[in-house]
Amino acid sequence: MGRAGNINLITTTIETAPEFAGYFKILQKVSYTSLIVLIVSGVIVGSIFAYVSSRQSALRTEKNTLLAQINRQSVTEGLLLAVKQRVAVIDKILAGKQGVEPLFAIVDGVAAVGKPVSLLLDEFKTVTIVVHVGSVGEAITVADGILEKAKTNVITKPALASFTVNKEGGFDMGISFVVQL
Amino acid sequence: MPFKKFLRLYKNIISMSVWSLCAVGGILFGVFPLAQKSVTVWRNVQALTKEVNVLKNKSDMLALLDEDTLRRHVLTLASAVPPDKSLPSILTAVDTVSGGSGLAIGDVSLIKPGSLATESAKKLSQDEAKIGASLLPFSVSGRGSFDQIRSFLSAITTVRRMFRVRSMNISFRDTLPSVRADLDAYYYPYPSAVGTTQSIVNLTPEEEQTIALVGKIPLASATSVSAMSASMPSGKDDPFSP
Questions:
Q1: Are A16 and A85 in the same domain?
Q2: How big is the A-B interface in CB pairs under 8 Å?
């Protein structure tokens, strides 16, 4: 019989089927464990997410503020960029600067013996000088002068391009070489 | 009622199973995706932190720079290598140098002058790419003594409108020697866009040295500088936008 005054005829304790009692205990443990894992991991992951989200939001705000500041200084930035780029270009130009003075120094040497007729410098730094000389001896002196320059590497690839008898007497001597400008 | 009996018998097992499934589902479909999202946001935070640091440095750097000094530097450099073809400065330089050397200029011909605009998007030739600047070829012919020709050709490459002698032909056949020289004038457009996140570095001592060196090169003419000054960028968000 039940307790006095209890008129409930249906039993209040729910019995698990006896054949599943063992499984029930395991399932109960799994259920509690997974619930604890869900709650704990949920709290941890949720906290981390809230933190990184707020950090991201703060950084975005900071970035926008900085961008606005930089945008206000864009003229200065543009000027700095222009200076830097132009300096780089000018450095390259100055490094490869071609002066023609060394070539004229060679012409001076040639003119001391003969009379220059023409001087041609092409874009590959190949020079062709035509000199009028009075005699073969002068021609040899001019050629020696050019060969002397070749020894000092001021010029390379010296060659006798032409040698013609001039109608006024004497010879027109064409010499070509590559000049190191 | 076998169903009710079944429920009564297995109620605990069913409820525990449902709780377990809910917990596993919560982990799989709630916590795990949130963790993945946290990792993604964390990576964004790392990237943003780097970006903000770069921007902070850039902002600090820009605050330290003196705009007037930079403006003077640009003006000095642009008088040597202008931002466009600047045909007047070529003609002025040739005129000034020939006046100084005494060479009588016969003609000045611009070879393929092309567009008078900046042509910032123009494809550079191999020669131009090597230097990094564009070249405007032109030729000058004149008549004078050998010393005058020599003086002209030496001086034209040493004035503050940078030129180079590509080729030349001097003839001594007539009483007065004549010259025809093919020259290249350098020009380099201003930057068309200013970056928003790229880091910037202040001028190095070497760069300051180059600016000082260019400043010491004698000017071809004062008018070329005033022309550069007129085209100087000022007061716009993008100072180099057209």
A1: yes
A2: 246
- The residue among B189, B173, B223, B240 whose CA lies nearest residue B77 is B189
| Residues contacting B43, CB < 8 A, separation 6+ | none
Contacts of A92 in chain B (CB under 8 A): 130-133
How far is Cα A173 from Cα A128, in angstroms, rounded to an integer? 10
Q: Is A5 within a domain?
A: no
User: Does any domain span residue A2?
Assistant: no
Q: Which domain holds residue B27?
A: 1-64
Chain B: give the shortest CA distance to residue A80, in Å.
6
Work out the number of other CB atoms within 10 angstroms of the CB of residue B61: 18
Residue A161 Cα distances to A88, A116, A130, B47, B168, angstroms: 41, 15, 9, 67, 18
**Helices of type H across A73-170:** 74-95, 101-111, 136-151
Residue A150's CATH number: 3.30.1360
* Interface predicted TM-score of the whole assembly (ipTM), two decimals: 0.76
Helices B146-156, A101-111: crossing angle, 10 deg rounding: 160
Q: Looking up tokens 């035509």, which residue turns up?
A: A130
The domain that contains B185 carries what CATH number? 3.30.70.60
**DSSP code at position B28:** I
- Indicate the number of domains in chain A: 2
Any domain includes B31: yes
Residue B180 identity: R
pTM, rounded to two decimals:
0.73
Per-residue pLDDT reduced to its tens digit, B98-121? 988 888 998 988 877 665 555 555
CA B151, CA B99: separation in Å to the nearest integer?
11
Q: What is each CA distance from B2 to A15, B10, B62, B128, in whole angstroms?
A: 16, 12, 83, 94
The alpha-carbon gap from A67 to the nearest alpha carbon of chain B, in Å, equals 7
